[in-house]
Amino acid sequence: MTSPATTPYTSPFVLSLLLLVSIPVVFLLAPRLLPPKTLPAIPDADESDDLALFRRAILSSSSATPAPPASAASYFFRRRPSPKIAFLFLTNSDLVFSPLWEKFFRGHKNLFNLYVHADPYSVLELPPTPSFRGRFVPAKATQRASPTLISAARRLLATALLDDPYNQFFALLSQSCIPLHPLPTLYNALLSETAGPHSRHRSFIEIMDNMDNDTTLLHDRYYARGDEVMLPEVPYDRFRAGSQFFVLTRRHAIMVVRDMRLWKKFKQPCLIERRDSCYPEEHYFPTLLDMQDPEGCTKYTLTRVNWTDSVAGHPHMYGPGEVSASLIRELRKSNNTHSYMFARKFSPECLEPLMEIADSVILRD
């Protein structure tokens, strides 16, 4: 009988050979057996809270109608409230330019509502100015290279839909945005844009099927979550790009809040190795609206941004030395039907020079 010490299967030579053979096998099979490493996903609790909010917004919008007049006389003589613009501020720092926005809003309280989504992990040191006071919505954490920025925008849209049935336009802005025209100019531009189907108002949202004629860039962003993650709901030829800052009509805001089909794809976290191509907030909204109502969109944004010297995905940041009347007039220029109404990004130090030209330039056409 062979003793255990001399069993051929336990000899040092055989064990070493098996170990050497197993190493390449592990390297070959591991990528197929182990899930790829991804960036953090949206917490389930956040998703559940949002779904509950979105359901309320959809139900409210489907039944929201102005209260009927008390009598026939009041029907003929009552004044119907004007459509309103919901200004949606998405921020992770102080709203430094709120004094400028106060000038922009002054005298037009019946034409707008205001909502702020501030990352709960950010520290806001400046007290809110009057128009912003009490306008902060329940917020969740946001970060770059993550679908949380989409969630925050949808949260703002849903809150504004619930808050006032007369919110008819929804302008998404950041803390580094400034106005380029008086509010009535923006208001008239939105109301006059009725080139959509059945003469409906259109949404001002940038929609591109390429990015600066660089197909590689769009390709990398499409596959940022994995090779087949977006299929079948979002084939590559329907994938679109555009600025995350838009002005949506009410029907499109409802469309965004109601969506579940594309959201289940765009909410998937990007692969860690492809995080440099992860900008879901620049693709979800243009892709969704181009699929569902392309004729109802202008396909251009009203927010001007300077990408000439971008760094790590961030556009040019204007400093106080660049602020002037000529800069504002230059930023307004557009090759589209309407001039630009907003611009970004401006550093906090720009507040003082902007306030100096607010009345004479920014708020005067």
TrEMBL record:
It comes from Dichanthelium oligosanthes. GO terms for cellular component: membrane. InterPro entries: BC10-like, Glyco_trans_14. One of its GO terms (molecular function) is glycosyltransferase activity. It is a single-pass type II membrane protein. It is found in: Membrane. The chain crosses the membrane at residues 12-30. This is Glycosyltransferase BC10. Keywords: Glycoprotein, Glycosyltransferase, Membrane, Transferase, Transmembrane, Transmembrane helix.
